[in-house]
Every structure is written in C-alpha cells, then in structure tokens.
Amino acid sequence: MPYQRLLNITGILLGGIVLSGTEPTIPAGIYGTNIHMIDRVGEDMEDYQAVFASMRASGCLWGRSDNYWITNEPQPGKWYFEETDRFFRDARQAGITILPIFTAADLHLPAHYKPLSAHLSEYRAYLEKFVGRYRDSVKCWQISNEPNSGGSSTRQLECGDYRTYLNLLKFSYETIKATDPEATVVHAGIIGTDNSVTDFGYLERELSEGMANYCDVLSIHPYLESNYPEELYPAGLEKLRQLLKKYGAEHKPLWVTELGDSIGTPPEWEKYYPVAFREAGIDPARTTLLVIEDPEWNFFTEGWMLNAENLGVRFRTKCSIRMMELARQPADTVLLLGTNGDFPIRFYPALQDYLRRGGTIVSAWIMPLYFELTKENGKQVKRQKVEARHMKGLHLGWEAFWTQKGIPGEFSRLRSAFPDMPDFSRYRMAGRILSEKNLHPGDRLIPLIYAEDGGCQRPVAGVYRFNSEFKGNAIINLCWGYPFKARHASDSARTWPRSVLLLRAGGVDKVFTYKYRIHKNRTAQDYGLHNWNLKPLPGAQALKTLFRLFPEKTRIDVVNRDRPWIARGIRPDGKVVHAVWLRHGSAPFRLTFSGKLESVTDYQGLPLDWNDDKLVVTDAPLYLLGPETITVKSAHK
C-alpha cells in the first residue's frame, strides 16, 4: 500500500537524523483567516498589499494559504519563486503572519511527481527548499488539509487510510525540523463529522499510533452546518479534551484553521416551500406554525437555516412550545422539526399521535429522528445517532449509497418536479434519497426535487401525504448544498462572536475564518467576511469588535449557560468584560453588577445608552466592560 512505501522511505531518508530540542516558535495573534492567494501562478496576484492592509485594519494578523508545488517547480529541477517571494515579502511588511499548507493533492502536484508515493525524495527536496528559503519570515507550517474528508487530501494520499496521512505527517515533520528546528508544524485540520467538532474516530486512531509526536499544534475544522455554537462547542470541546488527555496530548495547542458560513440569500427558498405547502393541502395564511423552544432538552427547532422568515410564506401566527406541550397541540398546525435530525425520544409517542390526528411536520437536510435525545441521570442531554430506527413508526423512509446498491455516492444534478419550482440543475448533492418503503396503504410520496446521475433519478425532497392511520403530512428535504445552507450575512454576523467566545473558552488558541473574501466569480453564495472589493460584511465588523474587547491573552470563562449565556473575560490590562446573549430569540432581563460599568457595546461595536436595570438580550452578543460580576434575572411580567 502507499503508506507502507512512505514509511519505508521515511526510514531511509531520515533514520539517522537527531532532531534538536529547540522549542517551536509561534508568532502572536489569535485571529486568522484563509486567503488562498498563492494557489497558482497569476491567480489573485494583483492585490496582495491591499488584502494585507485590509486584514491588518480588521485586526486579523494571520493568513492561511495553500502552497501549490506545481507553481514552484513547474518542470523537474526548474524552480520559480517570484510570486511567492512577493507574497511573503508583502505579508511580512504588513505585519501579517502566513500559515502555509503543504498539500500534495492532484491539483497541487506537478504531473512529473505523481504519484507522491513514488517521489518522496523529490517531495523532501521541495520541503527543504521552501522551508529553507522562507525560514526567517515563516515559522509555522501546516501539513495537509482535512485528510478525513474524502476530498482533496484523500486524492493527495491515494487512499483514505489514516496511516497514510500519519506517515506523511511524520515524514514532513522530520524534514521541516531538520531544516528549521524552530519551526512549528501544525497537524491537518480534521473536519467534524456527524455534527461533532471533529472526527473523533479518525483522530483517536491517529493518536493511538503516536501522531502527537509529529506535530506541535493540533487543528480542527468544526463547521457549524445546521447547529448552533451553544449546542456544538462546549460539549464537543470537553469530549476532545478528554480524548487528548487519554493519549497525553492535552497540552498541545489547539487551533481552528477553518470556520465559516456560506453567505448569500438563496432565492430557491422563496419558491420551494410554497409549492410544498400547496401539495400538502395547507394554506399557511390560515395555519399556525409551531416551533419548539425547550431549554430543558437543549432543543430549538427554529434556526438560521430554517425559520418562519425563510419559508417563503406568511403563516397566520407563530407559536413557541415546549416538548411537554406537543401532545395537546391542534392537528391543523405545522410543526417545524428543524435541520439536524434531533428529537427527544421521550416524546416520540406524542409526535406519532400528532401525525395520526392530521398534523404536518417540516424537516430539512436530514431525516427527522436521525438522532435521539435522551437524558443521563435525569439531567444531562445525550445525543445518539440511530439512523433509520424510527422511520417505520413514522411511515417515512430513506436510502443511501451505503444502504442500497445503485445509488451513486454523489448525484451530479438536481431537477425540480414542478414547473413553478426553482431550477436546481447547477447543484449537486450526496447520495441519500427519500423512500416509499414504509408507507402504509393510502399513503403516498409526492416528489418535489429529484437528484439525477447518469440514468439514476431518485426523489430527494417531497411531501409524504398520509391517508392511513396517519392523516397528516411530512415535508422532507434531504438536499444539502448552496441553495439550502447559505446564511444571510446579518445572521452569520450574530453567530460569529458566539462561536469564537465558546471556542476560546473551550481551549482553542487561534481561530481562522473561512475565508477572508467572497470570490469575484461567485454569482450565488460563497464563504467570506468581505466582498471581493474588500468591503466588509457585518461578520467582519462583529469579529473586529470582539477581538478589540477580548484581545489576545484574555482569559475567557462561560459563567452562565442559556437564558442568557454569559462569557466573562479577564483582559491583559486587568479589566473585566462580559458578553451576554441568547441562543435564539430575544427577551428582557434585569441586570445587577458589582464594580464600575464603563461601557455597553453591541456586537457591531456601537455604544449603547443604557441607564436602566433592564436589558433586552438577543442572539447578538452585548458587551459590558468594567463590572467584576454581573447577575441577570428574567424581566418578563
């Protein structure tokens, strides 16, 4: 296998090297971004200085960027460094620290050095030349990107086995340290899976075989996807700490080298759900929308990806309920179940009864009840994947490429089933489909969107219309991609500071946004905190405000969880700053504090005139500078 060859060559080339005990060098700065400006010769090369000046002004002192080996050695032994020299020079002059990524994906590799496993001596020469050339200005190097994802890093390593990456990491680590003993080697960012901060199984396999000996910094990519920061990061980071402690790696610095949202206002939303409700026989103007807000179960079904505002229709009323109230809700309503497949299983019979009486549920991105929520010791909410366990009991069904032969791993296009639906043909999606296998006599599935690939066509969004012992509907959308997961820039801005505060409180040392600006050729949605012309989006200002009030070396602790969330920071100048926010919605609170209140600032950095003990708290953090402690109580009458 390729990793075995890699292991053998590593021993041949580096077996006699004795590495120095020199401590690695990590420059200052806690806020970075992905810029990807040296991807290829001639791409995005024209405005290094403008981008670096913009980054500096926004408080962002680190830039993460791919290195394309093919750029520097387009022909064997012929080296080209003109553009990379300018890139690193301009970054250094602007006070920006660069984190280069050494990858060897197909796109990055020179054709004459493929496959990598047959050209490790050349790869070693490339590392030595590159690190040696820039060692005075670059001290941190990342080895690969998301090797667990099945994307570029799998193609780069020729197989998805974790040992392949582990041996590449070891080979790269020893070569870099031999070239510059003061260098810092950063592990590849492991992307989260199954709504987790990382891929725990992949990471544990690496740690069990000594991965921590061949990097100075650990890295994760904990994208929120459909989650809220509050439900993903505190518990996920605690689980990660326990795993690292198990293998003696708990003292390694932890960086988040990618984190971001796809920004845009997808027009598809405005036409998709009106058709869905029509086919379900529902008139939203005469119907109540039910959303679940239950802090006891940490279960909130209205979120940034699916809420009353982006359904494209106007309901008569919206009503928030708790789980214990589901059993007494009228059947002529629509229940929003959210986008992450969670459900407190204690209330499964109440959900079945709701459908039996004629109620309608709406779920997106994943089948409902894909995850069970239970309670440990009657208190701690536990989340467990159960996949299709409850589908029969709901008359629903799904299949995927791993459960049914003939379903492709990825469909190449989507197609609308109705002429008044949007054109989805430019979008792809993973191989998961809706199934009729659990329908009862009288039930039917009305497809709304088909996924296609070659001769395969399967429904991936539709309305289950029940006319058996169930009399309601289930509106299900399994599509996952730009038309459905883009966020409004204002929504993203409200989430960014919450994410960063919880990550830093959980032990993360640096956070790199993905990415600095939206690409100039994007016509729909893209990741980024600035437009291509470097005009900042609201998220950029939100982060600038956060890092001004919570600067580097601020000790951050979460001192209150939910209703509201409160993070307390002790800054290097000795001042105390608090951030106060809700997971969702808004509510008034009465505030008392000890110490002098110097200022109250909103998440965009605007000062607030506040002379009352009442404070309206929302999902956008408010910052209070000065008080040693604060106490809040609900001000609802």
Describe the structure.
With 637 residues, the protein is α/β, with parallel strands linked by helices. The strands form eight sheets. A nine-stranded parallel beta sheet has the order 5-4-3-2-1-26-8-7-6, covered by helices on one side. Strands 10, 11, 12, 13, 15, 20, 23, 24 and 25 form a nine-stranded mixed beta sheet that branches. A hairpin with a 5-residue loop joins strand 29 and strand 30. Helix 2 packs parallel to helix 4 and helix 5 packs across helix 7.
Estimate what percentage of residues fall within beta strands: 25-35%
**Helix run count:** 15
Structural class: alpha/beta
Give me the side-by-side strand order of the main sheet: 5-4-3-2-1-26-8-7-6
Compact summary:
The protein is of the alpha/beta class. 26% of the residues lie in helices and 25% in strands.
Notable characteristics:
637 residues; alpha/beta; 9-stranded parallel β-sheet; 9-stranded mixed β-sheet; 15 helices; 35 strands; 25% strand
Task: List the topology elements.
Elements (H helix, E strand, L loop, with lengths): L1 H13 L16 E4 L13 H11 L3 E6 L1 H4 L9 H13 L2 E6 L17 H15 L5 E4 L8 H6 L4 H18 L4 E3 L3 E2 L8 H9 L9 E4 L7 H18 L7 E3 L5 E2 L4 H12 L8 E7 L4 E2 L16 E5 L11 E6 L3 E3 L3 H9 L3 E5 L6 E6 L3 E6 L5 H4 L3 E3 L9 E2 L1 E4 L12 E2 L1 E3 L9 E10 L2 E10 L7 E5 L4 H4 L3 H17 L4 E4 L12 E2 L10 H12 L5 E6 L4 E6 L5 E6 L5 E8 L4 E3 L12 E4 L4 E4 L3 E6 L3
Parallel strand pairs: 1-2, 1-26, 2-3, 3-4, 4-5, 6-7, 7-8, 8-26, 10-12, 10-13, 13-15, 14-16, 15-25
Antiparallel strand pairs: 9-27, 10-11, 16-17, 18-22, 19-21, 20-23, 23-24, 24-25, 28-29, 29-30, 30-34, 31-33, 31-35, 32-34
Helix pairs in contact: 1-7, 2-4, 5-7, 9-14, 14-15
